[in-house]
Amino acid sequence: HMAAPAAPRRAFLPLICLASIAHAVAGVAAGATRAALTTHFARSNNTGDLAAKEGAQETGVTLLGMALGYRLAGERGALLAGIAGGFFPAAVAFGSRCMTEIPSGPMLLLAVCLLYSERKAHHALAGAIAATTIYLRYQNGLLAVAFLVMLAYDRRWALLKPYTIAATIVGLLGGMLDWVTWGAPFKAFVKYISFNVIDDGASAFGTSPFGYFLKHLSMSTGIGFGVLLLGLVMAWVRARGLVVTVLVYFVIHCLVPHKELRFLLPVVPLGATLAGVGLALMLDGLNKGPWPSY
């Protein structure tokens, strides 16, 4: 349907008919498989609740990914970023599950979108959102710090200040919450570091080799994973800081002995969006002449 406006006039009707057939087939297949996945995770007869959560997560990631894609690579970037983010297999499979990694992805993507604004209030909001995600999953702090480093590297000092102040305030409020609930400021964070880093307690739940994530992402995504990797590399020319952020987050988690695929979900929406942007830039480079929006 989206490609039809770019087709020659004589091919428009056949292409629309073919798209309708494909849409019907995909609808039947997607409905059947999604129902099976949702029923599998519905342990308390809450199928409707899980379906609503998955739909909200997918819609949020798609819209935010399209917004960032449009900012970085125009209309084609928005289209490909939305497709890559909304249909990434790991995100779809985990989308209906109640895990802190699920809301982390859209929230971090929203923070990135706000960072491309020139308004101080937007950067303050980005800092507050990035800091909030740390209390959903402490590893998200890597991304919050990376955003701060990106602002400093670009010498956007006027916008770095509200980001830092807002993130610090939210961080301190989180520490105060630990004081009320745990009896001491930042005690939950200290316990987390002690168990996972100092005592290496997570290894008791199993360890995996360095290539665990690459293996399982390629198995779940198929040949599309190679295409997305190519797009991520191509996005370097337009968003170097974000590409480095995604890669550093990925490598650090590859070095951690205990691995679960869900650990990557906070950065999956951003990585998929950048892949769509890179593919759009590559298509722009292959075609120098006039080209329709889609």
Describe the protein's architecture and organization.
- This protein has 294 residues and is mostly helical.
- The chain has helices at 9-41, 47-86, 89-94, 101-115, 120-134, 141-153, 157-182, 187-198, 212-221, 223-234, 240-255, 268-286.
- The chain is globular, with a radius of gyration of 21 Å.
- The protein starts with 8 loop residues before the first helix and ends in an 8-residue tail after the last helix.
- 32% of the residues are buried.
Quick summary:
The chain is mostly helical and 294 residues long.
Features:
294 residues; mainly alpha
What layout of secondary structure does this protein have?
Layout: H1 9-41, H2 47-86, H3 89-94, H4 101-115, H5 120-134, H6 141-153, H7 157-182, H8 187-198, H9 212-221, H10 223-234, H11 240-255, H12 268-286
The helix-strand sequence is: HHHHHHHHHHHH
What kind of sheet is the major sheet?
none
- Strand % is under 5%
The proportion of residues forming helix, as a percent range, comes to: over 70%
> Based on CA inertia axes, which overall geometry fits?
globular
Structural class: mainly alpha
Termini separation: 10 Å
Radius of gyration: 21 Å
The tally of helices reads 12
How many strands appear in the DSSP assignment? Answer: 0
Average predicted local confidence, pLDDT: 86
Task: Outline the low-pLDDT stretches.
Answer: 290-294
